[in-house]
Amino acid sequence: MRSCVARVKKECSFYPRPMPRVTEEHRERRRRQILDAARRCFARQGFHQTSMSDLLAESGLSAGAFYGYYRSKSELVAAVADDAVGGVLGLITPLAHRDPPLPVRDFVREALRATDAYAFGPDGVARLAPQVWSEAVRDPVVAAALETRYRQVIDVVAEVVRHDQVAGRIDEQADAAEVAAVLLSTIMGYLLQRLLFASVDADPYAAALAAITGARGGPGTGAVR
User: Fold this and answer.
1) Distance of CA 213 to CAs 15, 68, 109, 205, 206, Å?
2) Does domain 23-71 have CATH number 1.10.10.60?
3) Neighbour tally for 204: CB within 10 Å
4) pLDDT tens per residue, the chain (225 residues)?
5) d(CA 104, CA 110)
6) Which of 46, 144, 154, 198 has the most Cβ atoms closer than 10 angstroms to its Cβ?
7) SS3 state at 224
8) Where do the structural domains in the chain lie, given as residue ranges?
9) What is the per-residue DSSP string for 111-161?
10) How far, in Å, CA of 201 to CA of 64, rounded?
């Protein structure tokens, strides 16, 4: 008798079945699906020309599923900015942790190469950079996301600067974070020039930067002062 009741409960639709649990892995896949769709739309049309309808169509998700992850376009723009700079951070962090440490000159060259390949690859991240910077000026949500990542990148570059200070290639009295900020500004400037002018190339750019700063690849070759 009990087995019959159990079978009836299992087979009859009016007995509710437990909802499947949504795993964090599933949620991360959905986030990635939305971010990738948003990045494509933003790179193709710009932030302000992209509507929520465009984003829904590009992602292939229902409105309910979409808004379960991002409640507004502003929130999504901030997430795309965070993701894009996070990609750069993921590229340069291993360079900063090389053993033996890379001199600043070599680090900048390798960072430019890696960033160039990432930013100007099929995902079109480079096209987002000027839009993100512009949006950060007017939207505090985007600005906060960008500043958090900016500080993380500065910390990584400052590690490389400190190694050069110990090696005597950069003045040990200089503030490593401030030097890192200047180096980062040149990388940001490179991205903008590369986006606008096809003739701009990473290696000559890095060599010119080394000539300006005095930072060199070998020991005992002078320090930035």
Assistant:
1) 74, 49, 14, 12, 11
2) yes
3) 10
4) 555 545 545 555 554 555 556 688 889 999 999 999 999 999 899 998 999 999 999 999 999 999 999 988 889 999 999 999 999 999 999 999 999 999 998 999 899 999 999 998 887 789 899 999 999 999 999 999 999 999 999 999 999 999 999 999 999 999 999 999 999 999 999 999 999 998 998 888 888 887 876 655 544 444 444
5) 10
6) 154
7) strand
8) 23-71, 72-217
9) HHHHHHHHHTSTT-GGGGHHHHHHHHHH-HHHHHHHHHHHHHHHHHHHHHH
10) 45
Answer whether 23-71 and 72-217 agree in fold.
no
Residue that is written with structure tokens 């992602």 in the block: 59
The residue type at 155: D
Nearest residue to 216 via CA among 225, 207, 154 = 207
What is the homologous superfamily of the domain 72-217 according to CATH? Tetracycline Repressor, domain 2 (1.10.357.10)
Q: Is 142 exposed, middle or buried (0-12, 13-18, 19+ CB in 10 A)?
A: buried
Q: What is the pTM of this model?
A: 0.79
Q: Which two tokens stand for residue 101?
A: 């440490």
